[in-house]
Design goal:
Elements (H helix, E strand, L loop, with lengths): L27 E12 L2 E13 L4 E5 L6 H8 L7 E6 L2 E2 L5 H11 E4 L11 H11 L4 H14 L15 H13 L5 E5 L7 H17 L3 E5 L3 H4 L4 E6 L2 E7 L7 H5 L5
Parallel strand pairs: 3-8, 3-9, 6-7, 7-8
Antiparallel strand pairs: 1-2, 1-4, 4-5, 9-10
Helix pairs in contact: 3-4, 3-5, 4-5, 5-6
């Protein structure tokens, strides 16, 4: 039986009231990253000596040609893949040294992922899909569904909680996916072509939502995109070429927030 949406208290899951300068220590520190794959034709090296610093509160866009390794870099930052060599510190954790079980716990606690395809479970409602990470963490069903309902309200889909993914538009599906990515209140949002499957108008609206949630919830966000108009709205643009990141055109930085400061000691 489909679970009805619980009443929403109309309070945002988390808000930020003021801003401060960036913290001195980057929330992401990558040093001398290497990633090599063994193929039938020999070794394929994606990264060699790649380094990266991202300050808490930044929204960084990563651009580059297909096959340059943008998605692989996100996977490594989010503990979905391991580097061949190098140091990768995310949220004070050296993710390169985590066991598979530790990596899974780290992802659930600290990382929100949004992909080009929404990957919603078709047999569950939008509300249940958003609640899944909480249920996986051991949160009781009632509390998980209540929190999920609040997040559906944040992405302007409170009236669609009982609908399954197949009953939602592409933009609505991606907004549900964004709510699911943030339901555990992670510090980092990693988005891999989050608007790649959407038309231009819907893509802009989804990116508007990502920007709003990034600011209001004190997130640090890294967005991989081919859309240069959307990339230009980020704190700065980095281009991945020949296994390294090169600075691109930048805009005014997003303010460091009290939320990121308050969570600086979160493990």
């Amino acid at each position: 039986m489909t679970q009805a949406s619980p009443a929403v208290d109309r309070q945002p899951a988390r808000t930020v009231q003021a801003s401060k300068p960036y913290a001195k220590t980057p929330i992401i520190q990558v040093r001398n990253l290497e990633k090599t794959y063994t193929t039938a034709r020999g070794s394929l090296t994606l990264f060699q000596g790649l380094s990266l610093d991202v300050q808490a509160g930044e929204m960084v866009a990563i651009v580059g040609q297909s096959g340059a390794g943008k998605s692989t870099l996100l996977h490594i930052l989010g503990a979905l893949d391991a580097p061949t060599a190098g140091t990768v510190i995310c949220a004070s954790v050296n993710v390169a040294q985590l066991s598979p079980q530790e990596a899974a716990a780290f992802r659930n606690r600290e990382i929100g992922y949004v992909w080009q395809f929404h990957y919603l479970l078709p047999e569950f409602t939008a509300l249940e899909n958003v609640a899944m990470p909480l249920l996986a963490r051991g949160v009781g069903r009632r509390d998980a569904l209540h929190t999920a309902a609040n997040w559906l309200h944040e992405v302007d889909l409170e009236d669609r909680g009982s609908h399954r993914p197949g009953e939602l538009s592409g933009g609505e599906q991606q907004r549900v996916a964004l709510a699911r990515a943030l339901v555990n209140n992670p510090r980092l949002l990693l988005a891999d072509e989050p608007t790649g499957d959407l038309d231009a108008i819907t893509a802009s609206r989804v990116f508007d939502l990502i920007e709003r949630l990034h600011k209001s919830h004190g997130l640090t966000s890294i967005v991989v995109t081919h859309n240069m108009e959307l990339a230009a709205r980020s704190t700065r643009i980095l281009r991945l070429e020949a296994g390294k990141l090169a600075p691109g055109q930048s805009t005014a930085p997003t303010a460091y927030t009290p939320q990121t400061e308050a969570r600086a000691g979160k493990k």
